[in-house]
Amino acid sequence: MLNGIINVYKEQGFTSHDVVAKLRGILRQKKIGHTGTLDPNAVGVLPVCLGRGTKLCDMLTATKKQYETTFLLGKETDTEDIWGVETAVFPVPESEDAVKEAVFSFIGEYDQIPPMYSAKKVQGRKLYELAREGKVIERKPQKVRIYEISDLKINLPEVSMTVTCSKGTYIRSLCRDIGRKLQSGACMTKLTRTRSSGFRIEASHTLEEIEKAAKEDRVSEYIIPVEKVFSSLQKGTVRKNCNKLLYNGNPLKLSCFCETGLDTGRMLRVYDEEGHFIGVYRWKKQMFFPDKIFYDQND
Description:
There is one protein chain. The chain is of the alpha+beta class. It contains seven helices and 18 strands. Helices cover 19% and strands 35% of the residues. It is elongated and about 75 Å long. The mean pLDDT is 91. This is tRNA pseudouridine synthase B.
């Protein structure tokens, strides 16, 4: 079984689920999961976790993401993007300064209402399923954070920008909200995810490239080891006399580690003396407790 992460370039027309399904066929293994949904018409970075790496899915989903997007002022659609059905038309703002002011006003935390055409679940059902049945239900606003907006280009009625944001942010809805602040509708026309969980678009691989590598028995070149995700954490090596505790997932005292002066205020990536990456640990109750274990002696 393959373990780790592949930085996939999701192409237009594929859902994130499609990518996972195709990779299961290409790599001939079932244990695969993605780290954050991308709309079918969006493209860009989609980190996909393999084998033991699937334990990372929730951790990677919770991190910052960056997008390049373009939207059109003056109209709204049911999907909040250009591929939906037009629902309203508005005057286009004449002032570029007013547009700029509206765009930058969203930097920081704000309450965002998710779109009806989204995978978010309400009462056990995905919103897009309800939307396809012609239903529009009330959605609770959720707190999102826009860390940065850069590369703003205004060529009315078109606006493009780069957005760095928190998990759970819908860029379509951000475009919608900018339009409404200007008393002019807006719908997204383009979306590219350029960064996700530390993975960048420049280092991503298409499904075609991955399939070719798999046929040539060199797909391992594209797999990023799980431990690399935690390379910024301090390293701790466990002495052999503590291996039983280590392999059974027990908490570890400082005396179990070869290193001295470990910072108990920081998380720790833990190895055995043979160099196997075991997992990440957190200090509490005067010991390092396992947060996520990735090593399996049976592999």
